[in-house]
Fold this protein.
Amino acid sequence: MGDTSEDIAEAGFKDRTRVDEAREALRAVVSKVDQTEVVDLDSADGRAIAESVRAERPVPHYSRAAMDGYAVRAESTFGASERSPAILREIEEGPVGGDDAVRVHTGSELPDGADAVVKIEDVERVGAEVEVFDAAAEGENVGPVGEDVEARTELYEPGHQLRPSDLGLLKSTGIGTVAVRERPRVSVIPTGEELVQSDPDPGEVIETNGLTVSNLVRRWGGEPSYRDVVTDDREALRGAVERDLDHDVVVTTGGSSVGERDLIPDVIDEMGEVMVHGVALKPGHPVALGVVGETPVIMLPGFPVACIVNAVQFLRPAVKWAGDLRLTDPPTFPARLDRKIPSEPGIRTFARVSLETKDGERVAVPTRASGSGILSSVALADGWIEIREGVEGLPEDDIVAVQDWEWLP
């Protein structure tokens, strides 16, 4: 399937909704997941906090030496200098009396009675005595209780998406489990009578869209239900959607255009409402967005690249909104464009590119196979360039931002 088939499929759309407008229509029907669960820290990475979290204990939970040296009472070092050192008595352990000094290392618990640490470079050990050449103030080189985190400090508010560093902080404050929102449940329904899972005969096509979308959903923080292929039959499609209306989002792949076998938009409109059918982006005009009851339905095109582009533009935000997760922009890499890229005014275009290094410079090379049915053109690309609606193509040697849309958010 190349550009010719794609253009024919898109020709039936006279009115196309702009991407941002379509996304806002979708946002209006996506609800946050209400259910919560308590999970161990080792499985909480990337999850959204469901309730505020407070430190159960201070960090550190004891006064500690912040330097290698000797724990002392500060008053015993007053007046110490190079010419007139303070002479203290070294002891093995506390409590520390008036003229005592205990050898400590960075992180060691401060002995009872001590209120300062003299750095090792400011002392000289002479037999059982320690000569101190610089006076220490009370609290000097000491990490007090709660210096990092005080007990009962609010660490995170609801909606915060946990990162590995957060989990380390939680554990350090005595927290072993955390309440998080359940992952949004996303039903993924591939459609098309020509689709098979393996060993295709002539005229049959291996099902890949459902597999790809399911793994993207999991990467974005959702819990996919990857369903069996549903044939192009109204009742079969209706039944498949009805079965999964208890999910937070239903997404179908294929059958979203305006041909005789493109039935899913009509089925959804009969069951609920199709808010958007046809979006001003390329590849992938024939996307549809609807709602049945309170369940949003995203109808992705069957062309693999168009399916992926629309999944990133619409399904990813829906999963993030439902899961109360951060919706961040993909990282980009600046590169010089190897050759010009045409685009149609009023259409948001996603041009696949590979990245190469030429004469020490990063160069973006548009893929030769540009059809939205050419899965390898995106699978083997390093990213894509997003050309906004108000731009009419990009010239050769332009410095562009290449989106790494497949990054782990």
Notes: The helical segments are 3-10, 19-27, 164-172, 209-219, 234-243, 264-271, 304-323, 376-379. The longest helix spans residues 304-323. The chain has four domains: 3-35+182-323, 38-59+161-181, 64-143, 332-403.
